Amino acid sequence: MTRATRQDAPPAAPHAADHHDLIRVHGARENNLKDVSIEIPKRRLTVFTGVSGSGKSSLVFDTIAAESQRLINETYSAFLQGFMPTLARPEVDVLEGLTTAIIVDQQRLGADPRSTVGTATDANAMLRILFSRLGDPHIGSPNAYSFNVPSVRAHGAITVERGNAKTVRQSFTRTGGMCPHCEGRGTVSDIDLTQLYDDSKSISEGAFTIPGWKSDSWWTVRLYADSGFLDPDKPIRDFTEQEMRDFLYREPTKVKVEGTNLTYEGLIPKIQKSFLSKDREGMQPHIRAFVDRAVTFTACPECGGTRLSEAARSSRIGELNIADACALQITDLADWVATLDEPSVAPLLAALRHTLDSFVEIGLGYLSLDRPAGTLSGGEAQRVKMIRHLGSSLTDVTYVFDEPTIGLHPHDIERMNGLLLRLRDKGNTVLVVEHKPETIAIADHVVDLGPGAGTGGGTISFEGTVAGLRASDTLTGRHLDDRATLKKEVRKPTGTLEIRGADRHNLQDVDVDIPLGVLTVVTGVAGSGKSSLIHGSIPRSDEVVSVDQSPIRGSRRSNPATYTGLLDPIRKAFAKANGVKPALFSANSEGACPNCKGAGVVYTDLGMMAGVSATCEECDGKRFEASVLEHHLGGKDISEVLAMPVTEAEEFFREGEARTPAAHRVLTRLADVGLGYLTLGQPLTTLSGGERQRLKLATHMADKGGTYVLDEPTTGLHLADVDQLLALLDRLVDSGKSVIVIEHHQAVMAHADWIIDLGPGAGHDGGRVVFEGTPADLTENRGTVTGEHLAAYVGG
Asked: Nearest Cα to 737, choosing from 545, 604, 553?
């Protein structure tokens, strides 16, 4: 092998290509950004900090990453662009130096009931190929091992249009791995008919008790009443056997209702298709409550919950079939794959080993491939998305992360930091939105937005090194080295909540007493069994208020006023003061501007190009009819009230002509959780993850339960906001509530009255209580990973 000799020439002027080492943003105005201009170094790790709502996501995701994706999409043909999401150009004057952006955000993975960790990461696809090559007995192609592919058999006559057209007999067979009984879901449902209808009433009398099925619902109730199969005026309990069969189980049948052709279908299959085709985690709260009440899910008796056909389960490699392999903890599966030595599939085995090793490296080795994707937390979902990028050979790519440390124990944050640095060292630009000081500390460059949130933010407060941030007088700089102190005295419990023999998921027959009347923190490394213990063992009741990490769902018409129920007392107050109907003061009802239908903007669809939105000329973006805006309360019309920040609205409804106690109570709760800067009419789609979590918390504070269960309430919280959260938790406990918090943040641990630490590891290495006691005892003991980190945090 020969190598060309290199002649070192004298240094010349820098190459023109070397001048593009910065991402330049000029005049960014997306959401609350105020004409922001900034230069971000490429091939470096840049961390964006600032209080929740200061504009971090608007700058990083909605401006830089969004424009990168839009420009890439424009390189495809118009035909392909028609199948892709249309992206509008962000509100920014100039964006230069962009590279391909790979976004790794906190959006939950698809909540399809057939989506699992294995299908989301392609690990299942590789396992299916492996079993189709090495499985004994051989049953077919990789499709034969897929629970998403049904077996199909067909035969008949087909006409071949070639030369003299002739009819030939043809048969078709495809072997799939789907269990035919549960259709690849792994569970079957038993529906309680008493929760669907009141059989003492007729359909005309409003017998249905299903959410959304009102007595005047034309597309549902009228369809059953006018189908011709049933007597709509007869009580359901008096139906004949044939009527009952048609009512509950009839196959889809074409009928004509009031001159319109519709499809009639029995109630049971209709419920299964409309309500049970989605994963429970992806349902709206009221639908989820209905499903929990009306439907019992049990493991499929045919496949034992594996989702696979009998043939797929019969094919094995050694002692394992593909269902066994997917049920293994990923660390164990990686060990099993490492024992396979088959030259004919060597490249496949190497790729599968790399994927499984990536799971372990990123701290997800405790998962199994058959874990439903919809059950992953936001942090777990984000790390699952990272897996496909860890071994990538791409360089000069911009990776964008949204708080990658969410859901991570301090022990795991060190590993995540190493992964971020490794991506940078391969020659990539890494942009991270983050609050944790451990991750801010490894940054090459820091951009701090603020100084406040909402309209009080949207400017660059600081730009430079971590040392410079620490010395600056910004809110982040002042709080970067904050350390909570242990309580000198802890509260005494007023009782205990006994949990006995908890064995959900990886829990190993756990017995624990959770003290009541105090602040209890349940902690441990990711995957140690915290959520399984609390959410799986504490019985659901009116006494228990659970604020979990499930996302808030809402369209651009939803806002804090509608989500919290605040708009109802406001509308009633306006109606009473002006002697009109409350419906007039809803932009989604009678008071909506007829031109924009209450949206405030008019959207123009341009096909495969980004649609254009323009402020409605009729209402000037106020969303209401002009006649509605003539009605006032306390000198303000409804659009002016919805434009108020929470703090101003709280004062407005506290006293005087506009005094409305019901509205004032909701506003006080919003201010208590640190959302005083939000405007009442701000669309939910523009809120950050931390803001949505606190909005949910404020809503649940109105519930009358005696025990509050909070799942990582510090998610998305700035260092300066943690103290406010701790004060809120103290107020809840001091008012007589019991507060149980699943949390990794050391400040919350230090502030607790009692700590329950699970571990010592994750998956089958966890699931045990390794410590119970006060924070002071934990730091003194240092017998667990949590104890070591908490002691270091408080300087013990």
From this structure: 545
Question: Do 381 and 109 touch, CB atoms closer than 8 A?
Answer: yes
**What tens digit of pLDDT does each residue of 473-520 get?**
899 998 888 887 888 899 999 999 999 999 888 889 999 999 999 999
Short-list 94, 153, 148, CA closest to 309 = 148
The Cβ-side half-sphere exposure at 291, using a 13 Å CA radius, reads 20
Q: Give φ, ψ of 747 to 5 degrees.
A: -65, -40
How many other CB atoms are there within 10 angstroms of residue 89's CB atom?
A: 12
DSSP 61: I
pLDDT at 439: 94
Dist CA 598 CA 577 (whole Å): 23
The neighbouring-strand residues paired with 29 are: none
Neighbours of 310 (CB within 10 A): 10
Distances (CA, A) of 268 to 239, 252, 275, 554, 725: 16, 12, 10, 28, 46
CA angle 644, 648, 652 (to 5 degrees): 100
State the Cα–Cα distance between residues 719 and 52, nearest whole angstrom: 10
Rounded CA separation 435/441 (Å): 11
Largest interatomic CA distance in the chain: 100
> How far is CA 787 from each of CA 75, 524, 557, 559, rounded to the nearest angstrom?
53, 10, 46, 41
- Residues 55, 442 contacting (CB under 8 angstroms): no
pLDDT digits over 162-210, tens only? Answer: 777 788 888 888 899 999 988 888 888 778 888 888 888 888 887 888 8
Give the tens place of pLDDT for each residue, 730-762: 988 998 899 999 998 999 999 999 999 998 988
HEC-encoded secondary structure of 605-651: EECCEEEEEEECCCCCCCCECCCHHHCCECCECHHHHHCCEHHHHHH
CA dist., res. 450 & res. 637, Å (int): 31
Which of 765, 768, 760, 675 lies closest to 724 in space, CA to CA? 675
Average pLDDT, the chain: 86
Report which of 705, 724, 702 is spatially closest to residue 713, judged by C-alpha positions: 724
pLDDT reading at 40 higher than 90: yes
| DSSP code string of 691-739 | HHHHHHHHHHTTS--SEEEEE-TTTT--HHHHHHHHHHHHHHHHTT-EE
Residue 727 CA to residue 645 CA, distance in Å, equals 22
Burial class from Cβ neighbours inside 10 Å (0-12, 13-18, 19+) for residue 781 reads middle
Specify the long-range contacts of residues 237-245, CB closer than 8 Å, at least 24 apart: 237/199, 237/200
Assess whether pLDDT exceeds 50 at residue 1.
no
Q: What are the distances in angstroms from CA 66 to CA 81, 100, 391, 474, 684?
A: 16, 11, 24, 28, 19
Find, among 631, 664, 670, the residue nearest to 650 by Cα: 664
Residue 538 gets which letter from DSSP? S
User: Whole-angstrom Cα distance, residue 370 to residue 359?
Assistant: 14
Structure-token match 């989702």, residue found:
307
CA distance 365 to 765: 11
Q: For 736, list phi and psi in degrees, rounded to 5.
A: 100, 5
Question: Helix 346-361 to helix 123-134 angle, to the nearest 10 degrees?
Answer: 150
Q: 570 near 592, Cβ under 8 Å?
A: no
What are the residues whose beta carbons fall under 8 Å from the beta carbon of 540, sequence distance 6 or more? 546
Residue corresponding to tokens 């620490």 = 470
pLDDT-derived band of residue 667, with 50, 70 and 90 as boundaries?
A: very high
By DSSP bridging, strand 45-49 and strand 754-759 are unpaired
Q: Is the pLDDT of residue 686 over 60?
A: yes
Residue in 144, 697, 566, 279 with CA at minimum distance from that of residue 574: 566
